[in-house]
Amino acid sequence: MLLVIFGYVMFRGPRSARADLVTHRVRQERVELAIVERGTLESAKNSDIYCTVKSGSKNSTVSTTIKWVIDDGSQVQKGDLLVDLDDSGLQEQLKSQKITLDGAQANKVQTEENYKIVQSQNKSDIKTAEVNLELAEIDLKKYMKGDFPQMLKDVEGRIKVAESDVEQQRDRTAWANRMVKKGYLTLTQAQAEQSRLESYDLSLRKVMEEKRVLTHEEYGLKKRTETDLKNKVDEAKRAQDRVNSQTEAKEVQARIDREAKKSIYEQEASRYKEIQDEIKKCRIFAPQAGMVVYFVPEQARGGGGSQQAIIAQGEPVREGQKLMQIPNLQKMLVNTKVHEALVSRVTSGQPAMIRVDSYPDRSFQGHVETVATISAQQDFMSADVKVYVTKVMIDEEIEGLKPGMSAEVTVTVGTTLENVLAVPIQAIVGSTELGKKRKCFVLTANGPEERDVLVGQSNDRMAEIKEGLREGEEVVLNPRALVGDKAKTRQPGANGNGNQSTDEGTDRPKAPAAKEKRPPDGKDGGEKTKLTPEEREKRNKEMVEKFRQATPEQRETMLNAMPEAYRDKTRQRLKEAGIEVK
C-alpha cells in the first residue's frame, strides 16, 4: 500500500559535519494525502452463471462433473452453449423413475376404475335395501288389510256353514228318532243320522278352533304373523341403515385409495419431471452476449480453496457453485484491498485515479464505490495482515478494458496540504505509543541535536511537522547512524499493509518481524511487497516443489511448522499435486 507525495527532495546536506549523515532541509512542502493500491479489473454488472444441478446425495455437495466448458475469455452470443455437465447419472435415474412412474400410473388407473365400481355397487346395494324394506312394509299391510281379514271371513263362513249343517242334522236326527218310533225307519237308520249329527258338530268345533287359533290375542296366528312381518320391516330398515353405512365406508375407502394412488403418481411424475429438468440444467447457455470470465473465489485467489473451485473439463462442481460470469464491459471497476490501518480513512464517494497496466500512458477518473465491513480472507503467507476489499468504480466507459487486468488505484483520502512544513518520515524517531509527539535530529553548528516535534498528517514519504522545527533547518535522515539500531524509524514507501521496514516512524502499525522480509525472486533480502495473484501462484508452486523434493519426515515437519488454520488447505493442495503427506 503506497501513499503518493509531491515535492519530496532528499540530498546530502552541505554543512554535514559527518560524512555518514544524510540530511534534508526543512521547507514548505505540498503533501498530497492519498492511498495507492494494486488491484484487478472486474465488471460492475455481471451475469452470473451458476450450477443449479442438485447434489447427488445428502452426504455430498458435489452435483456432477464438467464434460465440456467454453474457454475462458471467449466471446459468446445470447443462447450459446457455455457448459455441458455430465448427465449420465441423471439419465440412469430417469430410466428407473420411468418404470416407477408407469407402475404408479397403473395403480392410479386401477383405483379410479375400482372407485367407479364401488360407486355402482353401492347404488345397487342401496336400491336393493330400499326395495326389501318396501316389500316388507307391503307384506305387513297385505296381511293386516288383506290376508288376515280374508282368512277370518273364510273361517267365519265355514263356521256358519257348519252351524247350519249341525242344525239341519239335528232336525233330521230328531225326525229319524220319531220315525223309528212310528216304525217307518229302522234303529240303524236313526243311529246313522245321529252319527252324522255328531260329525257335523265335530266339524263345527273344528272350525271354531281354527278361528280361535287365528284370532287369539296372545298366541293366535294373526299375532304371530303380524309380529313376524313387523320384524321383517324393522330388519329391512336396519339392513338399509347397514347398507348405507357400508356403502359410505366403501366409497370413502375407495376414494382414499384412489387419492393415495393419485398422489403417489403425481409425486413420481413430479420426480420424473425434476430429473428431466436437472438434465436440462446440465446444458448451460449464455443469457446475454459478451465475454466469458471464469469465476475464481476470493479464497482461491489467495492460494486457498479446493479442487471444487477449478473450472475445467472433468472437474467436479457443487450445487449453487458460481462457474463463470458474463460481464458488462461498458461499466468496470477495480477490486483492491486496503489495510486495516488505513481503511478508516476510505469512504464511499471519495475520488480516485486509476491506471491500468495495459494502458500505461492513460489514467481514468473514478470513485470509491464500496468498502467491505469484514476483512478479506488471507492465506497463511500473510495471515497476520487484515485487509478490506474496496471497489473503485471507473466513471468513464473505456473500450478495451477486460476483467482480470492489473490496475493501480490512487484514492484521495484528504485535502492536499499546501505550504506546510514537512520532513521525510525516515527522519522521525519514535513509535506509536508516543502518539503525535516524536523526535528527530537537527543538524546544528555544534553537531546533531535531538529535538521534540509534533507530527501532523502524513503519507508514505512525508510527514507534516506542526511544532519543533523551523524552515531552513536540516534534519538527519538516517538517525540510526547516531543512536544505533534502537532507533525506531520508518522507510519511505512503507505502508500499513504489512509492507513496512523493521522500524516505525509514524502512527501506522508495524508488521511482525517474522513477516517483514522475504526473498524476492528466490534471492535473499528485499522489502516485502503486496503479492499479485500471479506472485501468489508462483509462491504456491514453489512451496509444492519444496514438498515434492523433501522426504516424508521432512514434509511432516514442514507442514507442522505452518499455522494450524492452513494445514488442511496445504494438505489438500499437496494431495492434488500427487504428493503424499502424513
Q: How many whole angstroms does the radius of gyration measure?
A: 57 Å
Low-confidence residue ranges: 1-16, 494-529
Shape designation: rod-shaped
Please identify the top-level CATH class of the domain at 91-264: Mainly Alpha
Number of helical elements: 9
Q: Give the CATH topology of the domain at 91-264.
A: Helix Hairpins
The number of distinct β-strands equals: 22
Structural class, from helix and strand content? Answer: alpha+beta
For the record, the CATH architecture of the domain at 91-264 stands as: Orthogonal Bundle
Helix content: 40-55%
Integer average pLDDT: 81
Q: State the end-to-end CA separation.
A: 39 Å
Can you tell me about this structure?
This protein has 582 residues and is of the alpha+beta class. Among the domains are: 46-85 and 285-327, RNA polymerase II/Efflux pump adaptor protein, barrel-sandwich hybrid domain (OB fold (Dihydrolipoamide Acetyltransferase, E2P), Beta Barrel), CATH 2.40.50; 91-264, Orthogonal Bundle (Helix Hairpins), CATH 1.10.287; 532-582, no CATH class. 40% of the residues lie in helices and 22% in strands. It contains nine helices and 22 strands. The strands form five sheets. It has a seven-stranded antiparallel β-sheet with strand order 1-22-19-20-21-18-2, with no helix packed on it. Strands 3-13-16-15-14-17 form a six-stranded antiparallel β-barrel. Strand 14 (351-356) and strand 15 form a beta hairpin. The radius of gyration is 57 Å and the shape is rod-shaped. The chain starts with 22 loop residues before the first strand and ends in a 6-residue tail after the last helix. Mean pLDDT is 81; it is low at 1-16 and 494-529.
